[in-house]
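Curious: explain these tokens?
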Amino acid sequence: MRSALEHSIRLMLLLWLALAGHAARADTAIRLFESYAGNVNFVGTQVTIRKKNDDKLCDVFGPTANRKAAIAGIPNSATIIGAHLYWAGSAYNPDYTITFEGATVAAASDRRYYSTTIGNDFNYFSGAADVTTQVKSKRNGTYTFKGLTVSNGSPYCAVEGVTGGFALLVIYSDSSQPYRVLNMYEGFQFMRYTGITLNLSNFKIPSPMGNVTGRVSHITWEGDAALQQEGENLRFNGSAMTDNSNPAGNQFNSKSNINGDNASYGIDFDAYNIASPIIQSGETTASTRYESGQDLVLLSAEIIALPNVPAADLGLSMTRVDEMITGQDVRFTLSVKNFGPSTETGPTITDTLPDGLSYVSGSGTGWSCTASGQTVTCSNARSVASGASLPDLTLTARVTGSGVLTNNATVSGKLFDHVSGNNSASATGTVAQSFVFTDKACKSGAAFGAADQPCTTAPTPVAAGEDRTIHITFMSGGVPTRLSNGSATDVALKFALSCLNPTQHAGVQAVYAGVALPLCAEGGAAPTAWSAARTLTVAKGEASVAATFNYEDVGKVQLYMQATATGNVATGVPFVVYPYEITLSESAAALIKAGENFPMTATAFAKKVGSAQKATPNFGREIEPESFAVPGVVKADSAMAAEPALAGSFDDIDAGASSGSFNWSEVGVIKATPGIKNKNNTATYLDNGMPTSFNTLQVGRFIPHHFSTAVTAPMECAPKMGCSGSVEKGAAYSEQGFGVTVTAHSASHSVTRNYAGTYARDTALTAWSAAGGTAANSGATLTAPLLKAADFAAGAATVTVSYKLQNKFVHSAPYAAPSTAASAFLRAAEGTGGDGVTSKHDPGPEEEGLRIVSGRLLVPNGHGSERLGLPLTLAAQYWSANKTWVVTGTDGKSKVDPAKAAFTNLQGQAVPNNVISLQPASERTLAAGVTGFTLRLALPVVGTYDLLLDHEKWLPSTKGRFRFGVRKSPLIYLRESY
């Protein structure tokens, strides 16, 4: 606790500031901001940016420092229905933009608060923002806050008035909670030596109430535990809200029980449970009373969650279908939707017709209407579930008055409605008199709709920037009538335009009858500004006069005209002005890699005038915004096999144009055509049914993003070959052929099947010691033919290659070590004249390899009888990592041809070379690296032979020596027996 002297000094300074000059009051009264209903509850957290609360009250964390606070208590089964972030601080210049969870968050215009109550620049601010999306994805957890800039110097520091921090409120729905209405009040009100009373409503406690409970919470700023005079209180229905952190008389004490923080300097975020008798069955009103003594307190929010009877939020909308023409009927469409949470049974619409409209009928599935004077009551007995709508009600009235008429209606139900702001709707129109706009010249004396009347009051849609003739037709009794049968008649008229959808203009003026119209009246309102007067001449005997309309923007608009002489106003039927043309442009490089993003811009244009063509800036600003569809694509070359769709999207539209990033996962050249995307997927602007011109843009050439190489190894790795796990895809002998498949891919690794023919390029293969490596094996060479462009089909080509190590086995120098095993990874790259496509690419090369080993065919020595066949086992061997020869147990493809046997160095009896042979004489394939033959002599001669069997070049033969005429003891025994 500070000393009494310190308290007194601070009090005197605050009083001096309060009395100096005239204090400007800019506080925003606390008002009901939002309401929720259902099985709802809330949790919250807060964090201050003040560092201490003792001798360094003015020290704060800067805007770059991350402040953290945890949200806990949201049940796993709960649905988050609202999350609101509050922040506040001491500053003359308010900071309404901060950073939450790493993203920029700005307070909406109606949630930016500022208090200058004390005066003399002793000002405070507060901001609030909806962060439901961010909190829905994270739920319980630690949240980060930063970017808040406050003033901690003069005048705040001297009076211990520095404050700043964040508060996060999370509202959720869960079946474990009582049925409640949660009302969120918001504003920014100062109190000191005074209090604030909030009179609460918008709830209805059940009767009987049972043992259910409610909750009351507040978010306040600048409270200080040291400044108390037993006068800081929060009372609900007269009962003090207290707990261990907030004793009686010290409610605003920089302690927040919402997250158990007793050091929330400058912040009080507290919540209390309330039950009977503080709240009573059947209550519909309550009050909260905030009181502060010496301490300056700023109230930002109050959250009240009270037990409630079942509630349904009914919403009403109204649309005027017809123009208001004297003596004719006008229809209104009324739509009722239940926004929940409970099912409503039996809504009622009460429509109050203005003077000038008389009730004719009400119709719609399930609707029943009665009228009493100007009040029409329509009911529907159907149940409306949450999220559902009733069938539309069509109310028809006869136009009997003139001027601007507004029809008002409200909806009510049997259940409690906790959101009243959407219960009312209205539609306004101006009664047209004596003249109308028509699409053609009208026949005098023929009623609208008659078989011989060629005109209507409904204009067809108009292309932006295109001249359109819209006639002005004069009437009598609602029937087109010539002005004069004797001479031409001059009529002076003024014109105006109203924007219905989009509801606002974008700075573009329309032209009608040769005069520029004022910028359109917004929101479909009747215009108050008119063009200059224009005198039109109506030919004798004619009921109509032609005038040209041109508008270089888009939207649903409505023409008005006013007779200069009488002031009578006529209202045209709304019509759509649609884009004359949608064009695409792109600034990508001449070569685009398949699957990589490239930019394109779509623009909605008005018709070109001369060499100038203007964008239509209102495109994309509609009530339900129109947007650009992802362009459709077709192949520009019939030789292209694949034609996948374009991927990507356009960004938000600005001034009628939008850029976006797109990618195409194939190779070739495409023609891209833009389109319009809207809620009904009609592909026409505002569903007007008229086709907009869409230009076609040729894009590309697209090339592969990268190659991949895949090897087909002749054999699997053996244990002592030195293979690195699964890195090598098998093994081959030095100089043994193996298959390599080169495949062209997009960035997403899909095969670019169009990489063939004119879109393929000659591609060379090279070998490296590792995938993506930059070093080759010393002395080794790859024998690989150039892959021609014509070799590629459907994006791939296969070729047989071999890899030769520097030193091979030579039988004449059997003890000379051959080259040790090496890994060879195959790289594909387009050659001269190519586009630089390669298998060595980021983020990782796609280059397969195999282990290359030195091999030989072991021909063993042997001896035996000259009269018997001598068994011979041949074995393929590889030079192991241990520098020994090991039988290649994984070789099942190499062959041995006995016809390639070479017998040399004959010693003993001189006989022809062909006296000895291998049997059988047919070629054999190794199994597990070995195969067997029999050596046979055609004549029983005694002597020695050297055998070489060089068949496969990757298995050079050892020299085997065989001696015939040697008898083993069993043979000698048999001979002597005979």
Notes: Helices lie at 4-19, 132-138, 969-977.
